[in-house]
């Protein structure tokens, strides 16, 4: 386990040294399997203050994904914690605003009677994607909180796009740096969850946008592939050729990058960097097993 210590003040540090106790904002990082990601140990979400957040943010950039186990995080606290990272997104798909907090995007298969209804709330989440790649102002981070979990399945996979970029041969890197991609939420929604299409107002609020296939992370300076299931076509390439290229490359970058699959526990909170990770949800029995996850997304 690697240790990271954040102190609220010099006086706090001196007091800790004299008493032999760690300051309240001290925490450790336990690496997760897969070569990226870390569990925050010894610091609860509710105890993250201005002093410790600086170290939390550094760990977020260094590890790409942070996990807080067994965290009691009410909706208001989740929104407040997300706001420490930046401005919070109000998602255009407002049918998922299932609480008094429109900043939260709730994924639930529970019906009005509180029992599983057999419907997956959003099958698009089961394909590798990056949240908000379809927005002109793309997203910095996504934060998930596990309220109710199935007894089996329903985990989340993550794929490292730094590693995917690093694994490409130089000639492909040079070629890919010249390519732009159209990302389109309406395209991916219809493709994966077409029985509940976007409304005209939602489509108008989320028009297709162009993104570079290769992006430089604004805080770390590292390059990463930026693709996923919202990518519809390559600029300047025919549609059928684009689709074949994107589908093949999406599969390939997961294979050549590093991956981590997370089995959720109740009250897990996880935040990850959308600028260098893709993710996808695992399947579960929606007819018999409940799953309720709260999502909050931070704009870049």
How much is the radius of gyration in Å? 20 Å
Low-confidence stretches: 3-22
Number of strands: 16
**At the fourth CATH level, what is the homologous superfamily of the largest domain?**
Clavaminate synthase-like
What structural class should be given to the helix and strand makeup? alpha+beta
Order of helices and strands: EHEEHEHEEEHHEHHEEEEHEEEE
**Amount of beta strand:** 25-35%
Number of helices: 8
Q: How are the strands ordered across the major sheet?
A: 1-2-3-4-14-6-16-5
The CATH architecture designation of the largest domain is: 4-Layer Sandwich
Mean pLDDT, all residues? 92
- Provide the CATH topology of the largest domain: Double-stranded beta-helix
Largest sheet: 8 strands, mixed
């Amino acid at each position: 386990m690697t240790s990271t210590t954040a102190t609220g003040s010099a006086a706090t540090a001196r007091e800790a040294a004299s008493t032999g106790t760690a300051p309240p904002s001290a925490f450790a990082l336990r690496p997760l399997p897969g070569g990226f990601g870390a569990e925050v140990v010894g610091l609860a979400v509710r105890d993250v203050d201005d002093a410790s957040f600086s170290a939390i943010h550094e760990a977020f950039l260094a590890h790409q994904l942070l996990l807080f186990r067994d965290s009691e995080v009410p909706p208001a606290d989740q929104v407040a914690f997300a706001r420490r990272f930046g401005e919070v997104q109000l998602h255009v798909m407002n049918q998922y605003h299932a609480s008094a907090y429109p900043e939260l995007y709730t994924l639930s298969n529970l019906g009005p009677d509180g029992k599983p209804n057999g419907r997956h709330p959003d099958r698009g989440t089961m394909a590798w994607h990056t949240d908000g790649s379809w927005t002109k102002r793309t997203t910095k981070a996504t934060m998930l909180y596990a309220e109710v979990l199935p007894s089996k399945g329903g985990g989340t996979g993550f794929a490292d796009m730094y590693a995917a970029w690093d694994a490409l041969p130089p000639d492909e890197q040079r070629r890919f740096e010249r390519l732009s991609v159209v990302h389109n939420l309406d395209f991916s929604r219809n493709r994966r969850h077409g029985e509940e299409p976007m409304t005209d107002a939602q489509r108008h609020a989320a028009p297709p946008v162009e993104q570079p296939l290769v992006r430089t992370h604004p805080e770390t300076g590292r390059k990463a592939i930026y693709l996923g299931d919202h990518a519809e076509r390559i600029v300047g390439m025919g549609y059928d050729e684009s689709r074949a290229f994107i589908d093949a490359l999406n599969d390939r970058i997961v294979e050549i990058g590093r991956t981590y699959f997370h089995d959720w526990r109740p009250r897990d909170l996880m935040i990850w960097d959308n600028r260098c990770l893709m993710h996808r949800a695992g399947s579960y029995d929606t007819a018999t097993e409940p799953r309720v996850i709260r999502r909050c997304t931070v704009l870049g």
